[in-house]
């Protein structure tokens, strides 16, 4: 009956991929993609 039983699922992926403006204001560094860390090992 509820089309959106968990509307939070829409906001969670965004926080994982990119830091929210609130996190940036706290002084948290931008999330670095794993792709950038791979070349260092190669």
Describe this structure in a few short sentences.
It contains three helices and no strands.
> What radius of gyration results from the CA coordinates?
15 Å
- Taking the alpha carbons of the first and last residues, their distance comes to 51 Å
Low-confidence stretches: none
Strand proportion: under 5%
The tally of domains stands at 1
Shape: elongated
Report the count of strand segments: 0
Please outline the major beta sheet.
none
What is the string of SSEs from the N terminus onward?
HHH
Overall average pLDDT = 59
Q: What's the helical proportion of residues?
A: 55-70%
Q: Helical segment tally?
A: 3
Question: Could you say which structural class the secondary elements and strand pairing correspond to?
Answer: mainly alpha
SSE arrangement:
Elements: H1 8-17, H2 21-26, H3 34-41
Region (Disordered): 20-42
Biased composition (Acidic residues): 33-42
Structural overview:
It is a single chain. The protein is mainly α and 42 residues long. The protein contains three helices and no strands. It starts with 7 loop residues before the first helix and ends with a helix. The mean pLDDT is 59.
Question: Which short descriptors sum up this protein?
Answer:
57% helix; single chain; mainly alpha; 42 residues
